[in-house]
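User: If only I could read backbone structure tokens as easily as an amino acid sequence. Those tokens are not coordinates but codes from a learned vocabulary of shapes. Could you go through the record with me and say what the backbone is doing? Here is the record:
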Amino acid sequence: MSAEPSDLPRLATGAGSAVPLYFDSAAHRLFAWLHRPAVPAAPGLGMVICKPFGYEALCAHRSVRAFAEAAVELGVPTLRFDYRGTGDSADIEPAADQIDVWRQDVAAAVSELRRQTGVQRVCLLGFRLGALLALLAGASAAVNAVMVVAPVLSGRRYLRELRTTLLAAAEPGTLIHKDSQAPGVGSMEVSGFSLSAATVAHLSQLDLSAPAQPPASDVLVIDRDDLPGARGWSESLARLGVRTRYVALPGFVEMIMTAPHTAVTPQSMLAAMRDWLPSLPGASSAPPADDDAAHLGRAHPRLPAPLLPLAGDGYPSDMAPSERPVLLGAERSLFGIITEPAADEPRRRAVILLNAGATYHIGSGRVYVSLARRWARRGYVVLRMDLAGLGDSATRPGQPDNEVFPPAALEDVRTALDFVARHYDAREVALGGLCSAAYHALRAAVAGLPVNRLLMVNPQNFVWDEDQMSSDLPPAEVVRNVGGYRERVFSAAAWKRLLGGQVNVWHIVRVYLHRVRIAVESAARNAARALHIRLPHDLGSELEEIAARGIRVVFVFARGDPGVELLRIQGGSAVRRLGDRCHVHIVDSADHTFTQSRARAVLEQTLSDELFVRHDEVADTAGARPVARAGS
């Protein structure tokens, strides 16, 4: 059932190539990208990137990739990787001390870079918590240089920042309630990512602000310019004899604290790295080598297709699912991770999960990874992929990065469907995901692509209306704002702000006028539909047409998400008439991206029930309330 040839898939990046691979850290396997220069360098300097933690890693994903590609332009081979229990790597024991485990992972990454490329000197680049890990691992891994971006130097202070996020996250859709806790006393969950009690205890004792020994001979400190906090630490390093360079630069918030679809790569920070790396010993390049073996790695020039076994849960190793990276399309420019069931799985069923906004293929809170591994154990091939310009896929020429609704998304979906059909003989395919992924899944079904089931989570847009989508008041925001204004009618504070001239009354009027427009247009489509007349942007007719083709439609919404009301308005009576062919679930106590573990568990169970049960069965899912189902 293997879909890949024996050679490693390779993604061209302009400055060189990037190879996805797995490597061992203790008894576990980690996922990584190895970026190689187009012009092979002498076995001199290489770099390992230590990413930030949690939601910050989602936001900074494309920027971290940009740092790797910038290093490769200088002839420095670079490895960026996922710690255990993060990204595409093997899962971690829930009670493990993540700081200790991840420090070991950094050391293993350094060894892997040396093994793959033959470099003699290594620089660690760490962002935020990744900077702390780089500093902890630096001495034991015998690295030669360290570059840190807005480093976490005090674990206690970092925990205070996380607790502030628990109370009120800055980004819409990532609100964490006060009672949100990861399983286990003393643990912490922030924006869908957990720190164990052992990790919290370890962090509370960590303080690197007064270093006793140098982490490396050369250190570049890139501080944030809005809230600098590492100047004193860098001066302490200089007193220890470290060749230290300190700069405070803009771009931190835009890179690491801004939602993935609006995150911006900090060009000034990239420039600082480009200026510093060539000054390090061993950074000069040699003339191009003649043989391809030098490009592929001196120690192991030809490696088998990388594979991550997923043994456990009572499955013997020879019956366990596995994962591998794949490159899709004629130009092999689209990236995905395939989770495969056991080799003798006789059924031919597949699921394709698309990007949630600009979040890369692991999904919000890593939920796509959890779902893929869960479903593979039930016999499904699961592809979680990045559309062009998102995550780890290449960007189409002339198109921007991080475009959530790219014009050619349907072509990317078609490529994925062709892939699972050709390589896995998939005869039944479910397509879906969260937010914009749900929109793309629906559009694919409407366009007649060969799908059998849609799994759509919190879509906030169902039809493409250029005027509405380019407006500063898209339908989902209109529905959300009207609901919010309705609640504030009974708020004395809101009335005080209104009478005090602190409220933009014209904006409120515009919202209500747009709401009336949406309602009138939807009513007109509903009436026309009853007369068998098809009007443009008619969601109800589209749902009826795809259901008539035998496609099962599943919606899952967080209670209060504007998509629920938008489906009711734009779908009209068609949703009710579809009966058992369209299931709508409402999950209580959830936000838009299901950042809390309790709500995320309900989401996973709901989607799994819809995928596993026979079509004529009704899943009994605790915590999820069906709104429109068979017989309702």
Remarks:
- The chain is about 35% helix and 20% strand.
- The mean pLDDT is 83.
